[in-house]
């Protein structure tokens, strides 16, 4: 049994349709990280604002 080369395996991967699944997964991850980052920054701003008002 001969091992397939990387290019041959990659070509098989593309033609099986897994690329679309991978692209959807990447897009979902990017959108989730953007949402998470936005929410985290807003919570940090709120916390800093609260601490600043409490110190005055």
Secondary-structure element order, N to C: HH
- How far is it from the N-terminal to the C-terminal residue, by CA? 75 Å
* Strand proportion: under 5%
Compute the average pLDDT. Answer: 86
Q: Indicate the percent of residues in helices.
A: over 70%
Number of strands: 0
Radius of gyration, in angstroms, nearest whole number: 23 Å
> Which word captures the global form?
rod-shaped
Give the biggest beta sheet: none
How many H/I helices? 2
Uncertain stretches of 5 or more adjacent residues: none
Given the helix and strand composition, which structural class is it? mainly alpha
Notes on the protein architecture:
The protein has 56 residues and is mostly helical. 86% of the residues lie in helices and 0% in strands. The chain has two helices and no strands. The radius of gyration is 23 Å and the shape is rod-shaped. 0% of the residues are buried. The model has no long low-confidence stretch (mean pLDDT 86).
């Amino acid at each position: 049994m001969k091992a397939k080369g990387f290019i041959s395996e990659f070509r098989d991967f593309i033609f099986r349709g897994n690329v679309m699944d991978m692209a959807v997964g990447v897009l979902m991850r990017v959108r989730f990280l953007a949402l998470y980052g936005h929410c985290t920054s807003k919570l940090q701003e709120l916390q800093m604002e609260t601490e600043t008002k409490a110190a005055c």
